[in-house]
Amino acid sequence: MSLRHCICAVAGALMVTATPLAQQQTEFQPGTTSSFMIFLRGNPVGLEQVALSRTPEGWSILSTGRLVQPIEVVARKLEVRYTADWTPIAFNIDMTTRGQFQRIITTVDGTTATSEITAGTETTRKMDTIDPASLLLPNVFYSPYEALAARLRTVPSGTTLPAYQIPLGSLQIRVGDSTTEQIQTTTRLISAKRTRVTMASASGSDEVNVWADEAGRLLRLTVPAQGLDVARTDVASVAARQVAISRPNDESVRILANGFSLAGTVSKPTGAAKGPLPAVVLVGDSGPADRDELVAGIPILGQLAGALADAGFLVVRYDKRGIGQSGGRPEGVTVADYSEDQRAAVKFLMSRKDVDSKRIVLVGHGEGGLVSLMTAAAEKRVVAVVLLATPGVSGSDLVLQQQEHALAKLNISDAEKQARIAMQKRINEAALTGKGLDQFTPEIRRQVDNPEFQSLLALDPAKLVARVRQPILIVQGELDTQIAASNADRLAALTQARKPPLPATVVKVPGVNHLLTMSVTGESDEYEKLPVKQVSPAVTSAVVDWLKKALLVP
Are 501 and 415 in contact, with CB atoms under 8 Å apart? Predict the structure, then answer.
């Protein structure tokens, strides 16, 4: 039986209550306990409590756990024992499945694994020939993968590790490449090792990702094809985030907002600064973005911050309210609320002695550009605004632009295309007025009946730009299919129409998509496949050069 078989049995589960973070260990060392949440397709379906300890004979992994409906499995005791060099000794589990008692006791003697399997009142005996160095991995519960995490700490890529899936048969675990990832929890920064492995049996194979912390303890395990995610509760918390990019002198900060605080990062030039620095507030696009705005493996804001800091600017970026480590709640938030958060970041910069308060700039990507325009109109202490891939039309018109682009790629009749556009117009009108939403499916209502989407639909850049008196730079990728290049022309026209007339600088970058990276088609389905996960140097150079000129930075 492959891993795929046991995972599918867990589908359709209900919520499980996790151990509060305050009760958890932040570092899983031998002799301590930790908790793991089990998710299937994003839904929490189980919980395991795990202890790893050294014993006179070697290692012991001891756990209890529960998986909820429809499988309803409770492990009252699961134990795996190894020698000091991870040679298997024994495995046993006492559990109930839908109320029926079950027990498996497996002992390993050289190349022979003997299992006594009890279901209810019946006991059967099974013997298998296995590799004497096999890892013992049962179905459904995942605490025994602690042994795999420990082995992956030292074995090189290309190694094949033997395993025995109790009580079914042997597996081969082919070890792939490893990468290092930084994960920030509420208490510490974890340097995690992520290893890709392939688990192969006679019935098939599964691609699996295994994360371990600095001590080699299991941190997370995923099977992407099955939607399975097993995560230690410190990294499963909504307050945990992957640190996609960092600089040696980065500073973690808290920005006081309206009744809560925003968690952010300040990036500065390396070396000693000669006096207060010009400063930049970065704000990302729509969606639940953290301070790095990580999309398809590209930390857009993180890379922009690094380029600006290298150019002599102090840069602050932050998790959106209710995202990552920031307080507040994302429900009910509007573009105006995000602008208030950005104003809090401006106020934060004004309070710093290492910031030149007369040279503070806003840089916004996508929706963040609209947020920055709104902030600049209200915040006269801002001296310049940079718009990256920012809409130049109302949100309602932008949605129609995006739909027309998507429909152009479909092999359907013109009549069907027009019918879908007409439907989108009705959806937009209902979302804006709050009338007629009941005519649409529940899925459509969930997507549009929220304040952020409604505020975006109603937002008109023409009204925002007319109120902004600061110089504006507009940077647009020519292959952007989310925000078409014509939006840059529209923003430029709006900027030049201000009274009194104020010029705008427009930079269109060939070959660049909405993520500000080099692209072939610019389509969103290309994002994950991009070979270079880097904001285009042409984009960062355009921003840096313009800011240095506008702010008289040497």
Answer: no
Q: Which residue has the tokens 């589990």?
A: 93
User: What confidence tens digit (pLDDT) does each residue in 325-360 have?
Assistant: 899 988 889 999 999 999 999 999 999 999 999 999
Name the residue with higher pLDDT: 498 or 509: 509
**Phi and psi at residue 402, to the nearest 5°:** -65, -35
Q: 524 φ, ψ to 5°?
A: -65, -25
* Cα 164 to chain centroid, rounded: 33
Q: What token pair was written down for 191?
A: 């340097």
Rounded Cα distance, 519 and 26, in Å: 40
Distance CA 376, CA 363 (A): 11
DSSP 516: S
Q: Point out which residues pair with 96 in neighbouring strands.
A: 74, 101
Kindly state the tokens that stand for 6: 């046991």
Cα 310 to Cα 61, 134, 253, 313: the distances in Å are 48, 50, 20, 7
Q: Rounded to the nearest 10 degrees, what angle do helices 395-408 and 451-458 cross at?
A: 90
Report pLDDT for 22. 31
Counting Cα atoms < 13 Å in the Cβ hemisphere of 166 gives 31
Return the structure tokens found at 133. 């160095």
If you average pLDDT over residues 450-458, what whole number do you get?
84
Beta strands in 259-324 (DSSP E): 261-267, 277-283, 294-295, 298-299, 314-318
d(CA 151, CA 81): 15
| Torsion sign across C-alpha atoms 202, 203, 204, 206 | negative
Q: What is the pTM of this model?
A: 0.72
Q: Which residues pair with 91 in a beta bridge?
A: 80, 106
CA neighbor of 71 nearest in space, from 11, 16, 15, 118: 11
Q: Please compute Rg for the chain using Cα positions.
A: 27
What's the CA dihedral at 38, 44, 45, 50 to 10 degrees?
Answer: 30
**Helix, strand, or coil (residue 66):** strand
Spatial contact of 366 and 483, defined as CB atoms under 8 Å apart: yes
Q: Mean pLDDT check: name the lowest of 33-47, 463-477, 479-493, 511-525.
A: 33-47
Q: Are 464 and 374 in contact (CB under 8 A)?
A: yes
**Pairing status of strand 189-201 against strand 204-212:** antiparallel
Task: Round to whole Å and give the CA distance between 441 and 438.
Answer: 8
| Beta strand pairing call for 88-97 and 73-83 | antiparallel
- How many Å apart are CA 2 and CA 202, to the nearest integer? 8
Q: DSSP code of 217?
A: -
Give the number of other CB atoms < 10 A from CB of residue 17.
7
CA distance 66 to 77: 11
Q: How many CA atoms lie within 13 A of 323 on its CB side?
A: 21
Sequence-ordered list of residues with C-beta below 8 angstroms from that of 335, at least 6 positions apart, any chain: 367, 370, 371, 374, 452, 455, 456, 459
Distance CA 104, CA 295 (A): 44
Interatomic CA distance for residues 98 and 401, integer angstroms: 52
